[in-house]
């Protein structure tokens, strides 16, 4: 019979996952706690995105006074996109740091910075009060948020993937995006409620601050949960194997040594995030600003779609464990390629039923990505560079293609007058994603590269 020992390196890193010569046996209680803490951080990040996207028109009036509503909206989305420009820098700092000092410490740090940046937005005086200083302070706060989120998604998905048993990694990883949807619904729902209850003047003068100020207490709760976490078994084992207390990998090796996996990561994240930001960040403004749809009804439709996605998300994650990540991601790419135009035509028809059907179709296709990516992306890289390489690939792709989606599509519609641009943009992303999934290896039910097999305790 194999002897069982506890992985607890001399460096002080802790992991109560038992380890045999052939496999790591996970502690179900620790796995559940890790999933909750990782998902909460993602929920907080997307709470901010939900608030920012849904209140974009009001923020434009507060920080970017203009007689041109389109220019106002472009300025607001420009500040939104600016945060994504520094995400690769955050990834290059936090990712390698997470591979050197541990995932748990870095995830606690990103939580602090994220909460501080969001809370600070709620305290910024308006343009009418301090002039040009207001949009500058908004931009600084967004840059702090962007820098911190550079280490958030890659760290959270890595954390869950390294804790999860091989045969349940898809299901457990899907809860990370469940947290995303919950945070977005929380932020967007709060803005929707405020829009319905407050007058336009009250919302512009003080009401818009409330959602951002809520980030403070949320951040404290998230930090408490993350500080109670133990290091992942995979990282603890990597430290144990190292001759020094901390494994050190040059940044250059994280890039040049993983170039093929990085290209696949960029392609997968491109289709994931273009479609994600199109549906969850851009569509609320598209419905109201471009199609002149009733604001409250438009917001409620999108919230309903996200609630539907939340219901389907865990089942789709479990499906990736049974049939594989590749078939599920490929189905999403094919769906966006074939159905983006019909779905947008339904949305443009304007009736509540047509908009709900079009948005619902896009939401269900997006679940193919939200359910599979949290487990598929960490499996592209070995343990010693997983956090760093994934952070770099993920954030470069998000910065170039995902976070810029609202800005680029708004500009394309303004330049061409073609209201179908959102569909064409998603179709292009689907082609890129389809090629990436064709070239990637299946990872469902298999150990993470560089790690021993992991089984449920």
Overview of this protein structure:
The protein has 457 residues and is mostly helical. 76% of the residues lie in helices and 2% in strands. The protein has 21 helices and four strands. It has helices at residues 28-54, 56-63, 69-85, 87-101, 103-121, 127-130, 133-149, 152-163, 169-197, 200-207, 209-213, 215-227, 233-241, 251-256, 259-290, 295-323, 325-349, 352-376, 386-402, 405-416, 421-439, and strands spanning 5-6, 18-19, 24-26, 454-456. The longest helix has 32 residues, at 259-290.
Helix-strand category: mainly alpha
Sheet bearing the most strands, described? 4 strands, mixed
Mean pLDDT, to the nearest integer, reads 84
Task: Give the H and E element order.
Answer: EEEHHHHHHHHHHHHHHHHHHHHHE
End-to-end gap: 17 Å
Report the portion of residues in β strands. Answer: under 5%
**What is the global morphology?**
globular
Helix percentage range: over 70%
Q: From the structure provided, what is the oligomeric state, counting identical versus distinct chains?
A: single chain
Instruction: Please work out how many helical segments DSSP would assign.
Output: 21
Strand order of the largest sheet: 1-2-3-4
